[in-house]
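Q: Give me the 3D complex with SN-glycerol-3-phosphate.
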Amino acid sequence: MAKIVILGAGGFGISLAVMARSYGNEVTLWSPFQEEVDLLTYERENKKLLPGVVLEPDVGVSTDIAVAEGAQLLLFAVPSQAVRSTAQKVAPHVPEGAVLANVAKGLENGTQLRLTQVIESEIGGHQVVALSGPSHAEEVARGVPTTIVAACKVRANAEYVQTVLMNPNLRIYLNDDVVGVELGGALKNVIALAAGISDGLKLGDNAKAALMTRGLSEIARLGVAMGGRSETFAGLTGVGDLIVTCTSMHSRNRRCGLLIGQGMAATDALKQIGMTVEGYTATLVARELSLQAGVEMPIVEQMFQVLYNGLDCRQGIKNLMSRPRKHESEQVWFGE
Ligand SMILES: NC(=O)c1ccc[n+]([C@@H]2O[C@H](COP(=O)([O-])OP(=O)(O)OC[C@H]3O[C@@H](n4cnc5c(N)ncnc54)[C@H](O)[C@@H]3O)[C@@H](O)[C@H]2O)c1
Ligand SMILES: O=P(O)(O)OC[C@H](O)CO
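A: Here is the predicted complex, encoded as structure tokens.
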């Protein structure tokens, strides 16, 4: 049994709270929004986000960031662009021995940092665990089998998260490739937007498989250039999360892409789905990183043009299909 404080009381925060509570942990949810806290305090359910998912009466809900002072495990579950401000708020309240983990998937706009780096830069003396993998809140809350990865440079921290959160329906693997795990989680959202566009345009299964496969190539290429290990991108936080996000109706990134493919302007689609379409900012940061590292990312480039420069997505597909001929794996031909 552990005392867990979850920062962020949205879809994933609630689903983690329900699951962790059902396996005997003491759980408190924090949100900066009074309305959200009132809803969960009195109705015990957010019917819009997770209908039918009810918090037990002993799950705490608060706007007071000092609740973090009781935490043995402090989980960040806020949108990626709110991770720094949340870390700043919670920093004076983090107990010395607490283990910190983050489930948000993204890269910080402006600094291009991974989110464990953002938290570590605001809260000294902690090596943060990245908790990532194919795990839609709707299914975690239902308690159907799910597998994720706890990644940290300090093995004991990742093992603590594994010990506290693993249960018969949630299998947690360990990994020390924090860079690969975080980049896989952040960048698959860009490809999920593209896969949604492809579905919105009714391009069929071949096109979507192509986007997913070539998208994974781009993710791995940038990820390796930034210090990740190539095998991580073949794992749960790479191809695993890419599959779930590109194919599921639960995915906000995919649903946002779907609207764009059906003809809605990107800004309107973003408004309709909400701010946690993480692929939008990830596209911007991934493009910057690819240009800086000299890594070719054609799908990311076309997604940037569609999302930020108003390129028609049909033209984006044409641009991808008319690129110069090349070798699939960028290696020289056998024997050359
Ligand atoms: N929903 C999922 O299935 C899922 C699964 C795995 C990872 N994630 C990741 O977890 C993160 C959160 O996703 P979610 O689905 O819970 O999002 P959400 O939009 O449902 O909820 C986010 C919550 O964070 C808090 N929040 C929002 N804006 C904030 C701000 N500016 N400052 C501080 N707190 C703020 C609020 O409590 C809000 O409810 C995202 O990065 C997402 O990619 C989500
Ligand atoms: O709803 P999405 O697109 O943010 O995806 C949620 C999770 O990242 C899936 O693992």
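A quick observation: The beta strands are 3-7, 26-30, 60-62, 73-76, 99-102, 129-132, 146-151, 170-175.
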